[in-house]
Protein 1
Amino acid sequence: MAQVAEIQPGLLARFLRGRKWYGTEWYMTVTGGFIVVFIVVLTALTFLTPNLAPYDPEIRTGDPFTSPSAEHIFGTDQLGRDIFSRIIYGAQIVLQVALLSATLSFIVGVPLGLVSGFLGGKLDRLLSLIMDSIYAFPGLILAIALAALLGAGVLNMSIAIATVYVPTFFRLVRGQVLSIKEEMYVEAARSLGARGRTILWRYIFPNVIPSIVVVFSLNIADAIITEAGLAFVGLGVDPSKPDWGYDIYRGRSELVGGRWWPVTFPGLAIALVALGFSMFGEGLSEILNPRLTEV
Amino acid sequence: MPDTSDNLIQVQGLKKWFPVQKGFIERLVTRQRQFVHAVDGVDFNIRRGEVFGLAGESGSGKTTTGRLILHLVEPTEGNIIFDGVDMSTLSNEEIRRMRQRMQVIFQDPFASMNPRMKTGDAIGHSLEIFGVAKGEEKRRRVLEMMEHVELTPAHVLYDKFPHQLSGGQRQRVVIARALMLHPDMIVADEPIAMADVSVRAMLLELMVQLKREFNLTYLFITHDLATAKYICDRIAIMYLGLICEMGTLEQVYRNPQHPYTQALLAAVPVPDPHARRTAPMPKGEIPSPITPPPGCRFHPRCPIAQEICSQESPLLQSVPGDEGHLVACHLVK
Amino acid sequence: MSEPVLQLHNLSVDYPTRVGVVRGVDNVSMTVNRGEVLGLVGESGCGKSTLGAAIMRLLRPPGKIVGGEIVFNGQDLIKLDKEAMRHLRGAHISMIFQDPMTCLNPLQRVSDHVVETIQTHHPEVKKEEAREQAAKLIDRLGIRAERIDDYPHQLSGGMRQRVMIGLALALNADLIIADEPTTSLDVIVEAQFLDQLRDLQRQFNLTIILITHNIGVVAELADRVAVMYAGKLMELADVFPLFDDPLHPYTRGLLNSVPNINLTEDNLQIMSGSPPDLIDPPPGCKFHPRCPNAMERCKTQEPPFKEVQPGRWAACWLYGE
């Protein structure tokens, strides 16, 4: 059947327009985008103007366990610290770790996946074995073990989390390379006389990029949750600094007494940011894949 | 040293057997390895400047033969001699460089184009690969070629991606791409099968025209004997990995000797209701190339098969009194 | 003159896409008579497969019928509800698809598939009886009895295609729609298939709509031929007059551009241009940009599809009002 070719307008235009026919994706694209933009802006503001947070998050600024009110929008925790400010400052750590770890796993996983898939043979078998072994570990357990081993600090945390996700990128890229290798246009490139590295760089890699970018943003969402989990079990970056996961840990015993706000707001923050990045990733995948409509 | 004789390509005793993939347990239990006899002993020459057709149905081995000649796949046995040079003696790098002289047009133009490469870049990529031209010079040459194959307006289409082009345009792109380095030979694997019916005639004409202009030699692989008749000078009919008949167009179409060729020619649907087919077709279907029938491969379906046909495989021999017309059949004396 | 089995009145089908609405079938009217083979021919995108799917009410969303009537055995199929349509399918209107491998359940034996088809529409038939009917059917199609319990992947392409005919025949359908039935078959198997279809058609007085882009296949089998282009019917005539003396310039161009293996001279005529973009089709007659006989009128007004001579229909301004 004839194929009606889709002319792709600019990236931004498509992003804004969304897709009129399939309502859900429209909302995913735009809403997800908004959420992420919101988060990123918030983070930027946190760096530029610490004054966005009404109070210093680390000192006592009110009575302990005041419920949400006009002075303390999210209430205060057991040490009288303003929770809203803690959320804002906590965003710094969370986002730093999430972005850094996603980037690290990307930098390690993608090139290994490309090379392994393209060359095959013993190298491929060895790398696959290593990656599968790492992948077999439950993510959080592995992260906990590594974090305990490496110690505290943003970099160590990021390395611990990154290690858990390297196999994800590796497997994804390797799988894509294996299937793209069989495509007719790769054979056509060989028949033109292209060398191996040219084929890998100009024919295979560009066609792998869309899926990588999507997984990257999903990875960030995952890393946020993992980081919160690590903080929850006490292996966070720095117990003295505001941290969403740690705050939940500290506040959970208070739920029994009816004080819901120390746990709920950090929890909501984690959920929203992770969700935002996930939606962003999904929306991105809708945009990046060239689609052909069959008539 | 370039071959001074007429032949651009000489194929001698070419075989390609693909191992059949088996499961782990199966491999333990059955000791014997099985092979797909895709190409099972093929000899022919392609003369400089001619259009040589390779025709057959699925499983005939015609596409594999094309890929063997292009060295996209290694032969199990046999030699391919390109312009006097035995390709098995060449290193990988030398073969890669030889690709400048031998290009291919694949069956599906859309699948054979990188979806993320602009048309102009895709066409001109070979220029960059072999350091012939780049940048402005490359663009100039590509635009010139695009005009040549009527891919216009060239400077607009240059920046388009494959999914933005029509089927006919894509077809021209792959033709242009093959021609950029002015190769000696082009292997065309079902080049028009995927084009719209009304566009095919135009593409065939284009190929004929380009052949004259660029002094090309074609290996034209097809299952459509009507199309082959239009463009080929000589033709070889393949069945289950072997050539069963070969000769000039006149010889094979006017005076087919092999029962398979005869059946094939009769089976082609003719666009003329007055010429509806009355001849019966051979029974059955093409057997598996993993276990081809013994003796003559066509004998189980052949209407005139004799005992010898199931025992001995016939060799490709000259038809008496018809120079250059070869057939592999015991019953042609 | 046999009676009509199917009548299409001004049938139109639209496909909404991201970049606009495509009119896949545009105002098609025609009749299919009992016992005839109607060849529906055209290039890819002309709407012939869409038309076949529309008749079966099996259009893939987002495609939908936006106008006209499909009258089958006195009923307008468009007005039927899903359950009623389901009863019709298989039992009264059957379809043979292009690629039998994707249309036969790979996990179901052939015999089971036929038996299930029979029992779905005739629940009163017992399993053994259905199996017997299936066996007879398969035998009639030239497939050896022992293959009846095979799975589709164990059969060759030609055999699978024959199973598809079998399924269509199992319930004595009034109308069989064959959508590119031979496109995926090798030449000789295609010829065998056409022979068999012709025999069965004569034997059982089957009514078949044969959808194909292959002009040769149409010439082999069809009694009447309808030519479609860009969603519209361009010409409709008995097969001999159509080939001997095509009225519409598109038909003429199409027939002249197809290689004929019997001809001694190579006389392929090239049609300029290519099939139009259906999102933004040309105004007036959709063929006018490629038409050697195009007049001023053709560029702005679409010609009506009418009976130009007895039994010969065409949509072309060459034949007046």
Note: Chain B touches chain A at residues 70, 72, 96-97, 99-100, 103-104, 106, 108, 111-117, 125-126, 129-130, 161, 163-167, 174, 177 (CB under 8 Å).
Protein 2
Amino acid sequence: MAVPVNSTTPQTPTIVLPTQHTSNRTRFWRAFRRNRIALAGLVIVILISISAVFANVIAPYDPIEPHYTDRLQPPSAHFILGTDELGRDLFSRLLYGARISLVIGIIAQGVAIGIGMTVGALAGWYGGWIDDVIMRITDVFFAIPGLMFLIVWVTIFEPGPVSIFLALGLISWPGDARMMRSQVLAIKELDYVTAAKSLGASTPQILIRHVLPNAIAPMIVLASLGIAGVILSEAILSFLGLGIQIPTPSWGTMVDASRTYITTAWWYGVFPGMIIMVTVMGFNFLGDGLRDALEPTQYNK
Amino acid sequence: MSVYILRRLLQVIPTLLGILTVLFILAYMMPSDPLRAVLGEQYRRLPPEVVEGIREEMGLNKSFIERYGDYMGQILRGDLGRSYILEENVSDIIAYRFPRTLELMAGGLIVGLLIGIPAGVIAAQKQYQWADHVLMVISLIGVSVPIFWLALLAQLFLTQSKYGIALFPVAGYEDGSVIHMILPSLVLGTNLSATLARVTRSAMLEVKGQDYIVTARAKGLAERVILVRHQLRNALIPIITVIGLDIGYLLGGSVVTETIFNWPGLGRAVVPAIERRDTPVILGILIFGAFLFIIINLLTDLIYALINPLIRYN
């Protein structure tokens, strides 16, 4: 580290550029690895993803076929997390439920961040009345009570996976848009953007090649935290009976169904809720850790 | 200051109009004939010309633009319309039910403040020590816990003797009964207290190194006085902002909490209204919720400007 800075050898610039590039990445990984919470988050997210992808391989039982002789069995060697009121293995249903939650979480957040980044970039780049109009629209969606909007939405467009991730995307973008706008506002004043402009680059070219890559870091953080939020919202919706419909295994729906058996089968509601919490926690931990690792100034404080 | 207030008020107008428009479009797209909701079983038995007459009377035959105009005019006159099913004005329903929701939101807010702020202050005081780490991990868990599950756990272990102890009533509302409020408030306040703990911690750390803290310490003030009068007071601005933003969350969370704890507030009125396609009630409550959110945030902005003169001139 203690390299004297007074050397004026001509080859210094050519060496500094590439090493600086890799060292940014290494610095990120070092910061990320040192953060145990972030690592825990990454592990949780990977585990849940594996359960979702390989649900059909891991699950010991069929998640949908009823098995009336095994109704409401407590956890045992046969059914490690017990069974539900139709005798279906809870563990197998939770594995399949991971598919629904993850797919909805990732696609809905993809919709949100897609809308948010586009809209935010336009507002930040063009400024003026375009900015005003876009930001007022953002305010509107920010102020509408999200959960109530979702409830009304699913009564209009039948509660299915597609309508749910569209609705979740539609109410989750304002935060992403605000962040993207502030990023673009800061970046568009920087020298390399001015340079690109004076070299005759077109606006889309500058936005995609120069502004976007430099604005992406905080958006990744928001995406990770956003997935957590969306998974939670989907669970709430399903819990209210307005989300994924039976017999598809969905975590929120399972907690809802368990309420009837609250005095006889504690495991039925406890495990699905726990898995929702762990998954949401995983994405929150990951997002938090990414933020610390991607924002060196904050990290060094 | 008055210029700032005026500008801020003017900014709110397009937002409000936008919200009304989005909500109207949503309501317009609601499936199934509202007449079926109004007339119930009679719907099929009535002769078509009578049904047509009622349609005419309710203004359902008008074009989208005409209905939009009628609706905007009605709302701007302060009239939220009448429930299709209950023989009541929507504003009366809100006036009757909102105080219950407000009680619950206040309960949640109190829980959030009582747990979140001290936790954040302690974490900041013990930065990077184990107390800090433990509190921050707990708060990350607290942000992630689904409140409907928390409610279920509470009902499972705290309201019945099968798996726990019967400390609290399972659900329900009784006028002035504190014991009925405890579980719903705790459940609703959990996410908020976790968020507040995190915000308080970072706000306290932000202020910690400021010159006036060093000065206060140099002139020999007691640590406790520095902590409360200087550090916490100056850390309040971001805390207030977060509280303002989380009012919307409390309102949404009350839908879940009220449903589980059978609490007769606004949230519990929404779900059945949707099942019955009672559009005026749904719309009225959504509009009310959005307005509430905007007004609270306007107030936080004004408080903010009052505390920090820099904002007024920006």
Note: The first helix of chain B runs from residue 2 to 29.
Protein 3
Amino acid sequence: MATALAGVPRTEAKLSAKDFKTDLKPIWCPGCGDFGVLAALTKALSEVQVAPENVAVLTGIGCAGRLPGYVSGYGFNALHGRVLPLATGLKLTRPDLLVFAAGGDGDGLAIGAGHFPHAARRNPDITYLMFDNQIYGLTKGQFSPTTPMGDVTTTTRFGSIEAPMNPATLAMAYGASFVARAFSGNVPHHAAMILEAFRHPGFAFIQSIPPCVTFRGNEQFKTIREKARWLNQDDHDHDPADWSAAWEIASQADVYDMSFGVIWRQERPTYEERLAFLREKAAQRGPAELDSVLKQFHP
Amino acid sequence: MPDPSTAAHLAAAPSAPRKTDDIVIGIVGSGGDGVISSGELLVSAAAAEGLYATILKSFGPQIRGGESSCRVRISQEEVLSYGDRLDVLVAFNWADFGRFREELALAPGVLVIYDTRDGTPPEEIPVDPALAPVVLRIPFHDLATEVGSALSKNILLLGVLGELLDLPTDGIAGAVERKFRRKSEEVRAANQKALDAGRAYVLRELTDTQVPVAFVHQKGEPKLLMTGNEALAFGALKAGCRLYAGYPITPSSDVMEWLANELPRFGGTMMQTEDEIAAIGMCVGASFGGTKAMTSTAGPGLSLMTEFLGLAAIAEIPLVIADIQRVGPSTGIPTKTEQCDFAHAAHAGPGDTPRVVVAPYDVADCFRMAVEAFNIAEEYQTPVLILSDQYLGQRKESVEPFDIHRWPVVDRVTFGENGSEPYRRYRLDDGQVSPMAIPGQAGGEHTISGLEHVETGDPTSSAAVHARMNARRHAKLERLARERGPELVRTFGAERPELGIVCWGSTSAQAREAARRLNREGLAVGVCVPQLLCPLPVAPIAAFLDSVERAVWVELNHQGQFYHYAKGRLDVDPARSRLYARSGGTPFSVEEIVDQVLALRRA
């Protein structure tokens, strides 16, 4: 059976969230929902017992893209939409690292949408967190692939006429073996979701809702907190192994009518495990020696 | 005397065959005729015999299925090009020949052999009578059916050619045996029968037939046989590449297929990705983690990789990208060769993107340049592009056995320890390349990005810092050209050349042969072949240009891309230089280049 973070060295050291924070001051707007994700991430990292040097935080471009600079460890704020290939390439060659990938809804569902299904089906042991605030914040307020129909933004002055995408159902349909939903206004719960994702062997997807106070107003935090339902708390029982129940929860698209928690979990071999199996088979071709490879070129 | 209507027809027979140790044979047929397989077996036989050989395959536009042709050149002397004109043409049918006519120029007195099954009368075959062809009709299909299966007619053909042309018949039998050694006893016996039937036919029916050409040779030490793409992939493996990611594209997919077989047992990974963007992205991710990584593609794929090329350049991530060029723009002609991506390779990327471009000049050099590309990428922490092409990548060629351990492998300088100082990824005070801290190294934690940065890697929008960092990134390249340029510009041909040819990549093969031919005729011609194209090693190329009276620049693209690039960096005297650039689709012929050199004299 697959083990999460197989090959990642664990530390006995007592770590706190502070150990994973850098001195760099985030450039996010005051009150931004991303602060909650950052707090949740550093808390989860401190609890998974992996030293900062074995942590890699990779991101695309957008407000979320600045995350690596604020987290201790190795970071790479790469290209818009391309964090998943980067993370997969790193994890497959360095299974001893905890690889955390993140990006916004535009990053993952617009420009980078082509990579999401493939990362999910390959099932490398990485966590992918999507900052889903339903808006392009860094470029100042254009509509995104998850913007609700009818919303007025800087590029939809008459209301968006495009049907939004749903990251959670897409993740399930793509074959992600772990899907959770988190709200940045509830840091302890959010941190728990990230920790669950770390402990899941395989591709773990988190749809995180970090309200954009600049383009969505201050009210969102309050309203989501009031309306949120918490899975497996408050008598809201859910079995993440139940596809139909999971699909129903994943289908919730209105941030004011959402359940948060682990939606879907499935144990299946990780890419790394299959790769190890493939390498064993390939070893039957001959020893890992260049001279033996050269033989095939003799006429 | 054989009956000319069924067995053989002799148009014009010279009294005695011309003896040659350098022969070019073309074979044409439909899918299923086994044309390519015949050609490969001939090359394999030649290499085992210690001869030099090369095969150029050509397919119709459909990549898979349909008509195909190959040309095989076998020679006692080092084979530099595919040979301009066929000494022997084998056509299983004339309809297929029609499709390749443009590519298959025939030599005067060519021996033409075709299957009796194609009903075309000898006087109506599409071969210029002015060439005085010697025409033989042989019932390949019927003979093969007689001994077992029409499918073995390509093997039967080898029996015929071996006997008829004095090719090494034992070598051919050995090549057939090796190719089918894992097949059933039945298949192997059937092949032997077909070979024997071919030889027997010649001895029975054609003893009185004078063929125009006979091959003479001396046996030598066996050569290696590989394609440029295999050599390139093998070089990558040797250099320590442990992640290859790519997306299938003609004519580069063989690189991926070869590494898919070989990388896993070395603990490496081959990823077939969802697109070329993901391919280069995985390489950047792997290299960030300290693993040497490569992708390969063709022009259209390189377009998709451009944004990551810029990222690797600013973040200073070692990376190798091979572009096996094909005819462009856009989809172009996927199965045909052209040196048309130089401008793209040299300039792709947003902003002042530094990059290195190297070009191997023959099959063996594909191995060496792959090792070199990784070494440069590691030492200078930069993306390196390798410009190969369809002609170089997909032709199988004899290669002098070489010691794979001869070339040293360079690894990036990694961060040791800093003491109390915080780690600085991009130091401005240490001569352009800073030790790389690799994830997992305690004390080296840092964040990099595509943003302009200060020394630690943290983002900045300072114009002054940007200018210094740009200068730092480009200074690396200047140092590369200075330190490695002289050894990465090769010269061939006459020691004191009067006339020169400047070319790069696969065109060097025909250029070198043109020089060899002209030198034998008493004209001192030299060839200058830069393997390092970007940054341009100005001094050694300038020295070559100074050493000749006149030079012609030859490249296989419409614009003369490399010439114009070089002209912007070198003093090229227009009175003493010519540009010969033409669109690809077919590689240059040696004759074409000879003509260009001769034109220099008239100029």
Note: Chain A has one domain: 17-297.
Protein 4
Amino acid sequence: MKSKQLKFLIGSIVILIALAWFGYQGFNESMSYFQTVPELYASGDQAYDRNSIKVQGEVVKGSIRRDGAATVFAIGPKDFKVPQNFSPGPATQTLQIRYVGTDAIPDTFRDYASAIVTGRLRRDGTFEGTFIQAQCASKYERESAAGVKETAANQ
Amino acid sequence: MAQLGQFGLAMAFILAAYAIVASLVGIRARNDKLIASGRNAAICVCIAISTAIFSLGYLFLTNDFSVAYIAAHSSIDLPLHFKISSIWGGQEGSLLFWSWILTVYSALVIAQNRNKHRAMMPYVTSVLMGTSLFFTAMHLFVVNPFKLGAIQMPNGAVSLFHPNDGAGLNPLLQDTLMVIHPPMLYTGMVGFAVPYAFAIAALISRQLGDTWIRTTRRWTMIAWGVLAIGILLGGNWAYHELGWGGYWAWDPVENASLMPWLIGTAFLHSVMVQEKKGMLKIWNVVLIVAAYTMSIFGTMLTRSGLVDSVHAFAKSDIGGYFMAFIVVTLSGALYLILDRLPYLKPESQMGSVVSRESSFLFNNLVLLVSCFAVLWGTMFPVLSEWYNGNKITVGAPFFNRVNVPIAIFLLFLTGVGPLLAWRKASTNSLKRNFLMPAVIALASGVPLYFLGVRHFYAWLSLVMSVFVGITIVREFYKGAKARAYGTGERFHEAVVNLTLRNTRRYGGYIIHFGFVLLFIGWSGQAFSEKIRFPESGIGKTFNVHQYDMRVEDMGVRQGPNYAAQYASVSLYEYGKKIAIMSPEWRKYGGRDQQGTTEVAILSTLRNDVYLVFQGSTDGVSGDFTVYYNPLVMWVWIGGTILGIGTLIALLPNRQTPSKRLQPATVKESEELGQAV
């Protein structure tokens, strides 16, 4: 009986170690830091060394434009009011993003959308994005209170 | 109507509390009348919650936008079936829907067992009503679906607000599948509450044989099957609605529904060991507690915004309440398990490593590891932030690295486990059962390799699918042949009768076969391709594998509640025109002006051509993306077979005529006589 239980134990441990190893590999391959724009700026020089960062912010109104195959835009704090001669940077807690990914830009991506861009921060201060997610339903619901307010103000 | 709904909620709250007290006091005092009264109260909770949810439905149908929930999720022009599905389209309503399913389950199971298991049922009632009480309290005090709309005036005063039209339902949710997918997920997740309640009742009443398992087997099967179908429907929705060419992304919300299902799968298998051998008693109780906890946790995950998700819903403060509820129920259950350990001793010893029970054990081990990995990956951003302030996310590669080998190992067990003997399988039986399928499977691996299946896991998964497929088909063949020989039935009759006489076993095989097909479909993912064709105008052609496409037309059209840009694209296979694909890019009205893609998909058993049109800014040229997705259709076929198998496994076994000649089986024995 004892030897049978030992066999089970060994078998299970082998399986667990193998899976843990796979998990470890997959983790290293796909981990990324998830930060808001201010957090990204606050992490200083470390930010340049991180291979994969997911940065979250609201798409700055009017900032989306095409540049060849890339899409360039800026993200920043919620309801950001664009000043005259706007240039994204730490001063306004906004970040210039250059999206070079191959995936199509999601339907929900537009001005004021809450976007999560995966990529890395380059030395020149632009963020090179390879993947964009834009939040849809949550945005939708959170906005409802604001949306109702707007309608009320119009009446 | 809002008041009626509110009244229903209040009644449900009082009745649920009463049902708990009456049942517990009743069983202590051995007062059958009190127990019966608790039971009736529990059934009335169902009526009360039904009143609430039908009131909410009525409010939707009558466009009563004075209620905040209706104003936020519906609009006058919303088609009828979407108005109904809006009931569960948002936070408040979906939680109410959850409650409703729970109370319907509770009422059915309590009524079904009203004269049985007298020592257990009052506790079952209490546990089910405990969950109902928690949810009803949430509806009443935290996320009330009947709250009237209100706005804050500039001077700070709050006044009621009744808009003329609602905000509308999120266009992505305006899809027929979204009418049925969430209810199925909920029906599945909530379903684990029934076996959970029986398990807790069994612990409290120290009746820890397999009564609680046998009584709830069908309930567990229903929950499991419905959840599986619900998850697959969600994948199907994502596939044809979201326009990114896939059906599974390891998003937290998807994971939330997968975790209880994984544990439920482990539970469904390990209970068989308890029924047959009286082992794994502690384990089974732990599993069902875990499955229930995961269901609650999953509901919380999708509803609280605890973890960022692409399709997370409202951020709200319900998380704290749910966490508290989970802590309370979990620690209660753990205390009970520890306290009742002496009653959970195994009745027999573990068999050899190559035996049925050990295959179940390994099945359980890897399913739990899988669930743990999914949980870990999903919660890692939260955990890492707690730990050192860095929010670190993990992506699909992590989940795939762990879960793909687990899934293939499970597929292997699917083929091997059911044919292994209990205790110890002899070398001879191994040869008899597995040599032929293994040889054929490996032989099929060679042409697969030369046909281009060079991705290791995809190759392994396909070879394993062949292996398992053969073992299952052979089981039917051997069983039916023996039966046809014994009874004189024709072969196909024998297959049907065989299945109907042992629905649990053969239904299980059919479910397993559904998984074989699912694996074939999943393997295709390794060969998916995506090609973008930006700024393509009329006359532009593109080529993907054996397909050529030509943009024939582009234009604008007006839908009932949206404006669409459409493209018309001819599809040629090997130069022969086979279809016209019409993808669209739609903008819905309402405040959000959200754009969505309507994908055009051509599905064949071999591959899908998946064409996305992302609209045109200048009216002359637009962006197209083509996905070439091999074998996707098999995922949906496999899911359908899985559902059919679950239904068959739920049927009662048909009795053998020779044993009992009853009216129901007379016709059958007559047929048998004719055949003889």
Note: Residues 1-174 of chain B form one domain.
